[in-house]
Amino acid sequence: MGASQRPTIKTVAARAGVGRTTVSRVINGSPLVSDRARAAVEAAIAELNYVPNSVARGLVTSRTNSIALVIPEAESRLDSEPYFSAVIRGVSTGLVDTKTQLQLVLVRDKGELDQLTESVAERRVDGVLLVSVHRDDPIPGLLEEFGLPTVLAGRRSPSEPLSHVRSDNLGGAEEAVRHLLGRGRRKVATITGPLDMEVGRSRLQGWRNALREACREPEEVLVARADFTEKSGQRAMRELLRRVPDLDAVFVASDVMAAGALVELRAQGRRVPEDVAVVGFDDSIIARHTTPSLTSVRQPVEEIGSAIARILIQEISDPKTPRRHVVLPTTLVVRDSS
């Protein structure tokens, strides 16, 4: 086989009749492989004379001086949400003077997950930053299994073992709802983010906590689930108005969804803030350009990006660095919508 046809994990997997993840596990000595599969992979490696990139470079520990920023979301979300561009700006700031290259990796389907697995197994990057973390996402476990330094923007659950940096989502949501109650609002609804994300669950819990603190019952009829997109925010607002026609305030778990909620309120002839007060979350550029301008919880997104980059560089430089769990404060920015 010529140099241009050097065997890859994909060709080894095809020869062995297994998936690329199984080949990667065998290469990295993972115990999570059956004896039968291990034997098939080892036979295919021998037949094809496959040599992982990291071995070909001489040492498994050799550096590539590059890291991957992995975003397991559709391009449409990447384009429409200021959150992602702010994280990328922050990461770039955190990498200044490190001579580290940044690779942006979108994982939108199984094929792209397989490509990431192969890249990780062959150590084409020194570490990974993972943004937009879902509870059942296989990527964090995969990276941990391969022993690749990994830092998350956000976390999967309160027991997250990997290093991560996040905003005070719970406290920010509580402050937003206290603000609405303090303005005399009686029926405060909420539009949530995806509840398979800890950020969505925390902001919902903050809404509940603030209502209970004020001796109000956080009734489920006041909760509409959405997915951080503008259209889902509009749909959720429509559903809330149908269920609770006399609601007079809504805490929305992102500015993008709040923009959709404002569109629906306008379409139904509800004045903001006179009839319904609205508070978003992020304090992105969107908040300053809605009509009326949006009260929002400011989270330090660029600081999250620069912090995860710095922590990852530390973990790459010294694998014994203790894992860090960092919470950054939020601030309520009051504008015309409340």
UniProtKB/TrEMBL annotation:
Keywords linked to the UniProt accession: DNA-binding, Transcription, Transcription regulation
Gene3D superfamilies on file: 3.40.50.2300, lambda repressor-like DNA-binding domains
Protein name: LacI family transcriptional regulator
Pfam family, one: LacI
PANTHER family xrefs: HTH-TYPE TRANSCRIPTIONAL REGULATOR GALS, LACI-RELATED TRANSCRIPTIONAL REPRESSOR
UniProt-recorded Gene Ontology molecular function terms: DNA-binding transcription factor activity; transcription cis-regulatory region binding
HTH lacI-type domain location: 7-61
